[in-house]
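This protein record is not my work; I was only asked to verify it. Take the sequence as given and treat only the tokens as open to question. I have pasted the whole thing underneath without changing anything:
***
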Amino acid sequence: MGDRIFIGGGGDGNAEAQNLLMGYANRHGLIAGATGTGKTVTLQILAESFSAEGVPVFLSDVKGDLSGLAAAGRTDFKLHDAFMERAQTIGFADYAYSSFPVTFWDLYGGAGHPVRTTISEMGPLLIARLLELSEAQEGILNIAFRVADEQGLALLDLKDLQSLLVWVGQHRKDLSLRYGNVSTASIGAIQRRLLVLEGQGGENLFGEPALELTDIMHTDPDGRGRINILAADKLMGSPRLYATFLLWLLSELFETLPEVGDPEKPKLVFFFDEAHLLFDDAPKALVDKVEQVARLIRSKGVGVYFITQNPADVPEDILGQLGNRVQHALRAFTAKDRRELRQAAENYRDNPAFSTEDAIREVGVGEAVTSLLERKGIPGVAERTLIRPPSSKLGPISENLRAEVIAASPIAGKYEAEIDRESAFEILTRRAEEAAQEAEKAVEAEEEEESPAVREYRAGRRYSGSRVSRSAPVTSSPARSRSSSSSRRSDSVGTAFAKSFARQLGTQSGRAVVRGVLGGLFRGR
């Protein structure tokens, strides 16, 4: 329809059609409701509608159902007759089955194109959130990032961060004088959290080539926006990883995209499913960051829609910024449920024709209480709305069709091969090897300066295999004593660590120790 998308209408013929105005679609939104009330279908029809209007979409497929956007609905589907009846009831005259342009993404690289970022791009705040670090541990992580910046150490993947933390531990005394206490206990705790993250598949998230934001903002030659679907069914096994990745992506959009003011339609619409995972046990600093992003990102032309079971899952300051709302049924079996239902109803403009609280409790599957922004950004009154049926397939597509869609994607082959360029791990390893070589040369030089008597004594001990008597005379070289003393004084903490690190790398037992300390750096390489 150009300037609006059709959401649904009333079944009694009196209620007005509910349309989401494209000029206010970047004012964010909320899709809420109990399990099984139709939130996923609402998300699906919104994604279809934005795509049809040329707006790219990014969403996560938590249950594996949204892949059906890549295929058209079928007349032999069991709900076909019900869909046609619904379309006729709400006056959806243009209803027809259609597929939509889809790009599949997968953190694990199996159900879509691999999606990665780097340690540096995610930054210490989000990584601390991901690892659930304490305030002291987060402080040490910030010190590590500062050291990496000062020394030009690129932090790309987990092994870079793990090796840098080992370096920080070896230099903790010097760093403590400059930045504050750096304890080995805190470093060890961070390393253990990194091992847990690695076991959850977090190593797949970090590396190169990193995601380019332009690749989720494509428009097809026919003018339709591409729908980017992140496979999140496996990712939901690590909910903190899921929430942190989506928050990072949202933050990157906020920091990267230029200001566009109030566009005629959004540049991108971002759906944040299972939004409660973002706010559960979140520190105030993180919630403040999300609030800032939500408040300001609309001027970048990005609309953000949170999907959750209960509006109470979203902090009040953020909830107040969500102008377009689709509220499916809420259950009210307990006193707490009734309080939350009453609170949800209070966030709508009252409709004198019915009680909003009763409507939210009574609406059926595929029905919702809606309030969409009108001209001048005024919230519309609450309306009982029958949500329009989807044009694409309801439910997942086959694996063969998914593979065909991935192969035909405009970015096919761009992210599949991982790149491991020189970064912090390689630089620190090379420095250790160079320092070890210098140390060996220094030892050789000292041996050359030894007197014949000392060399004879050493040779005697080497080949006799017996201990020298305490009373046996030993000739000591003054030159050697001075050299050894000077060498000890000149050895820095970094050189000592380098010697130890390089020597450990040279033995089988040493390699085993390094794998234990650094968390399997060499696995799969």
